[in-house]
Amino acid sequence: MEQRVVVGVGARRGADGAEVLRLIDSALAAAALPRGAVVLLATLDAKTGEPGLRSAALALGVPLVGHPAALLAGVPVPHPSGAARTAVGTPSVAEAAALASAPGGVLLVPKLTSPTVAVALAAARPRATPAERTGDPT
User: Fold this and answer.
1) pLDDT, tens only, 86-112
2) What is the residue extent of each domain of the chain?
3) Is the dihedral of CA 3, 78, 53, 18 positive or negative?
4) Mean pLDDT, rounded, of the chain
5) Helices marked H in the chain — which ranges?
6) Contact 125, 38 (CB under 8 A)
């Protein structure tokens, strides 16, 4: 089964879509995964209107979803940031959004940053086959 990943993205206002994609490509390279493995971009709900994030999602052909800061603040992450907490009310956007959008998943690539963007990759839990859902081994 091909690995599916969720990309969590944190970005400053006005972050460039090309920069978002460059950082996503770096994270994918670190995990030895192709762009086709990405199934979703996730971020803070207040950032879903950012043109750079929207253009990156469009270029990847995946949806862009947002989560409230209160939800993201409750997701344990390995690299919390005081600056993010002050700016947007959660100690993590990229790692927390990736994990929140991949329930039961695991962080594959922790937060990578550029001057205006942060990304993290979480493994999306594979969908169960009909046999797995029913417990039928055939």
Assistant:
1) 889 999 999 999 999 998 889 999 999
2) 5-126
3) negative
4) 90
5) 17-30, 51-60, 69-73, 82-88, 94-100, 130-134
6) no
pLDDT computed for residue 84 by the predictor: 86
Integer Cα distance of 89 and 82 in angstroms: 9
Beta-bridge mates of residue 6: 40, 122
Handedness of CA 55, 2, 42, 86 (dihedral sign): negative
Token pair for residue 112? 């990578």
What is the C-alpha separation between 47 and 43, in angstroms, rounded? Answer: 7
When comparing pLDDT for 91 and 135, which is higher? 91
pLDDT-derived band at 114, boundaries 50, 70, 90: very high
Q: Give the CATH number of domain 5-126.
A: 3.30.420.180
Report the run of H or E that residue 119 belongs to, with start and end.
Answer: strand 117-123
Tokens of 117: 């963007």
